[in-house]
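YM 10:42: Glutamine--fructose-6-phosphate transaminase sequence, as discussed on the call
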Amino acid sequence: MSLTLKEITDQKYELKSFFESFVLALPNMDVFREIEGKLTDEVLFVGCGSSYNLALTASRYFERVLKVRTKVFPAGEVAFEKTPKLEGKLAFLFSRTGNTTEVLLANEVLGRKGFKTVGITIEENSKLSKESDIPLVFPIKEEAVVMTKSFNMILLSLMFMADRISGSSVSPYGELVEYSERFFDISWKAVEGIDLKRYEHFVFLGVAEFYGVSLESALKCMEMSLTFSEAYSTLEYRHGPKALVDGGTLIFVQKVAGMDEQEKRLKRELESLGATVLEIGEDGDIPLSNDWRSAFLRTIPAQILGYQKASSRGVSPDRPPHLEKTVTL
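YM 10:58: structure's back
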């Protein structure tokens, strides 16, 4: 079995055990109390590639739930000091391997500016875990070049953390985790039912937290299947990018509460231009709660799509050209 496929499939079985053994225990950990004690009016989120998409998605939820201002930057902009003036006292830095050059440099820059840095990684012995002020190391094993299950598990953990700090209900997470195995199977069957040889253009649309999910979904398909893939805020797609729509375009829309009519009109418009449109969310082709908390499940269909499209093209998702697990400069 492909290593990438194994790690995509692992989520079907590991999400529940990860939630029960790690996520529910987070509030009792010292790192949770350190982060809670250092939250200020403005918090930075920094990462590269998938880790940037993860930072963006988590930042939107922190802002929504904790009522703090957040700023999100690619690590390279912080590392080489190309950002506007940075304010605040806490910064989350994301690097799956913990050894990404730009993230490590950003950690140094932010430390000099007086920030306390939270180093988010899955590698306990990485440079980031050793050099950040508050290392947050997730007990996740992921070896493939393409980031898949760790994106969703880390996102689940951070959203849960934000809700616990704010005093919001965390019961929806248990319900979503219980549904995750069924959601995986539904997603697999939905993608399997598509004649993927017809499509050479993938588009992912979503708003707010689901925009970050859409960016990550497009990246998965590019990395695994080498297929032209894009992501936009849902209604922004009508303002120019739809010029590329034709019969070879497959579009995924992340449904949200309160936009049913707009989503219906958009779907009709895009289908009239020849595209195939699938909706993820309540009453969608791939059913899922529209609660923002469901973000940690919403990249799974794209991960499956990326793998299956790669298989249809005879491309190995385990060996994407020009890519490596850790990017160093």
